[in-house]
Amino acid sequence: MIIGGAEDKLKRRTLLKEFVGAAGGSGAKIAVIPTASSLGAAVQEVYDAVFTRLGAGAVVPVRPESRADAHDPGLVAAIDGATGVFMTGGNQLKLSSIICGTPVGDAILAAHERGAVIAGTSAGASIQSSHMVAFGGPGTTPKQRMTQVAAGLGLVDSVVIDQHFDQRNRYGRLLMIVAQSPQLLGIGVDEDTGAIVTVEDGDEILRVSGRGAVTILDPQHIVTNAYEAKRSSPLLASGVILHVLPAGSAYNLTRRALIPQPSLVDVEDAAELAEAQRDMRQMARDIAAADKSPQALRRRLARKKAPAPGEVDL
After folding, report:
1. Which of 33, 100, 243, 256 is the most buried (most CB within 10 A)?
2. Catalytic annotation present for 122
3. By C-alpha distance, which of 91, 98, 111, 117 is closest to 19?
4. Model confidence, pTM
5. For the segment 131-189, what is each residue's pLDDT rounded down to a tens digit?
6. 15 C-beta neighbours (distance < 10 Å), count
C-alpha cells in the first residue's frame, strides 16, 4: 500500500482505515517503523493513536536507528508477528540505508511474502520499489543529474516510486529516471492518495484510492538523449506513455496496461432512462393496438413534466 504522503489522519482517514481493515481490523497487529522521521517517538505516538482509534488490535513500535539496531532479534520478532507493517514519512535515504539488507529489512520482505499488508507514506512509499528516489529538486522539465537513485526494498519490482508528486512538482525528476532506465515504470503518487498493489491471476494490479491521482510514466518506447546529455541540460524524452489515474482506476503493472472500468450511471439518470424505456414500450403497444402516432408519446411526456396546479416548479 503506497501512500503519497500527507494522508488524512483526523477526518475521514480513508487510506488509514483501508490499511487497518486489510491488516485484520480488531485482529490486526501493526508494526510501525518511524525510522525515516526526525520526530522519533512523537510520530510513533501519532500512528499508535490513529490505528488504535481505527480499531486495530495492537500497535507495536519497530524503530531501528542504525544498521546495528536493525539486527535486533526483538525488532525482527515484532515484524514476524505482525499482520500489517507501516513505514512513516521522513528521509527515505536514511530509511533505506538503515534497514535494506538487514534482518529487519528481510523480515519486512518475509511478512510481505506471507500475506501481511505492507504500507508506507512518503519515504515509506518510495522505499517499497526496487529503485528509489534518494533526493532531487522539483520541476516539470527533466534535466540531467536532476535526482539520484538508490536501492529500495523491492516489494514492487521494476518500478521507481515518487511521492508528494503533484503537490511538489516532481514530474521532471521521475521522467529523468525513466529516461535513463527505460526498463523501469515510473509511479508518482499524490498526497492523501494510495496505490494499492495486489497479485491477481499472477499479475500485479495497482488500484487507486484516496483524494488525488497516481501518475504512471511508461518509457518502453522512449526516444531520449539521456546517455549523451551533459551536466544539467534538459533531456529529450519522446514517446513516453502517460497514465493519470484517479480514485477507482486500475492498472496492470505486469502487462503495463490500463484495466477498463465499467461505466457508472447516476441514480437519477438511471431512473429517467428506465421511465423512458417504459414509455417507449407503452407507445409500441399503443401503435400496435390503435395505430396511434408518435405525437402521443410527446403529449404524455409533457403532461408528466408539467407541475400540478398550485405546485411550484423548482
Report:
1. 33
2. yes
3. 117
4. 0.84
5. 999 999 999 999 999 999 999 999 999 999 999 999 999 999 999 999 999 999 999 99
6. 23
